[in-house]
Amino acid sequence: MNAIILWRVAHILFVAVWMGSSLSIGADAKRALAERANGGALLIARASSAFQRSMAALILTFGSGLGLLFEKGGFKAVEREVHMTMGITLIIILVRAALAMPSLSRVRKGVSGTDEDAADAEGATKRLSMAIGIEHLLFLAGLFLMVYAVYKNPAA
Length: 156
Description:
By secondary structure, the protein is mostly helical. It has helices spanning 3-22, 25-34, 40-71, 80-112, 115-152.
């Protein structure tokens, strides 16, 4: 089987895990905070697990994209839309690190901490959902660019 096909399949699978795992993180964190006394710890554990899984899949998505890029012949061999999508993916990783990770940490503290910690975590749930929303919007922009690059030049 062609190595490019294998890289593409791996890339698409990692993207599916990344996006699928990140869909409920914000809602689970918000519910965990609201239900601190009745199962909040279980919900925040679920959100944390989904966050870690989606972060790993995000990094593997970037890595498999690099593998695919080098299998095609390197940076000079691919369209500029691919370069743009790689930049978008790096921005997504930064959004995760700068906004989503600290917000999820504050929500975790709010679920297991005092009432003051829980009140402080209310805003963090909104920032977490916003960060995941920004991530999904940037993902859609990157997906559009990748599909455009493939159909603009069918040899891609």
